Target: Zinc-type alcohol dehydrogenase-like protein
Amino acid sequence: MKAVGLKRYLLNDDPEFLLDLTLESPSPKGCQLLVAVQAISVNPVDTKVRAPKDKVEASSKILGWDAAGIVLEVGPDVTLFKPGDEVFYAGDITRPGSNSEFQLVDERIVGHKPKSLTFAEAAALPLTAITAYEAIFDRLQFDVWGKHKGQTLLIVGAAGGVGSIGIQLAKIAGLTVIGTASRRESAEWITSLGANHVINHFEPMRQQIESLGHKYVDAVALFNDTDRHWNTAVDLVRPQGKVLSIVENRGPLDQDLLKQKSATFIWEFMFTRSMFQTPDMVQQHELLNQVANWIDQGIVRGTSREVISPINAENLRRAHRTIEQGRSIGKLVLEGWS
Model:
């Protein structure tokens, strides 16, 4: 099978930082699906795993944690899918990724592809949808069916992949969404997705929040640069509120700032369930199916902004460079094998 991978961890200006490969096709066991990958998308996690370091892999490492495709074969313990099913999923960071023609993936973290979307459109969604859903409903514990309607959620970095789907999920729950953006096009994007207000995260946010009539917000979701925005997030969250981040910190985060407010800090890492094989792992299957239903009902829209074809090392190198610039709006997708 065709694949794109690496053996060395190189800078993105090295022509060999990702390579075209030919590998043996795998076979499913247990509750695994063998999926013929039709489209993939690229996320910051791809570039972080690929970041330069002094390590050489004994066998090629395949990246990629977003895909849509068709089930070719199923393992003997599979109960949720059958050959021919169209699926979308993010996968498991401890296993070979989706940058290959065929991929093995546990059925419990796979959803049925939205019927109304193409494979390319569907491939833009899984990782960001799982992350946003878990962040808003599992970690911040907002009620998906509107019990917390009217409460305020500040999303820092709202125009990126997770923010783009997060705005829409928060609006389903009836939350008042304040999204941050630093450019006109990104501000227009998040407004089109349903954000109630837009502020600039490169300008003092306290004054901007107060100008909207709020002293505090009920929760803050840091989807961009935890270190830069930590103090502001803690300042803006209400007493007994919650701050969440999906972006690892580079330096210490002063936890004492949370104490006076008895505020909570929570991490969201969407690979936790698959990495640790948690008993509730099947919830990712269920939430992906829920997101697919919302999309087919027209409640949630796709977030792909650019589609490149075919899937090969040259185009994946281009995609990685784009992601590493940190200015993406929506999602970047690759479709089809040459």
Remarks:
- Residues 2-125+273-335 form a domain with the Quinone Oxidoreductase; Chain A, domain 1 fold (CATH 3.90.180.10).
- The chain has two domains: 2-125+273-335, 139-267.
- Residues 126-139 form the longest helix (14 residues).
- The mean pLDDT is 96.
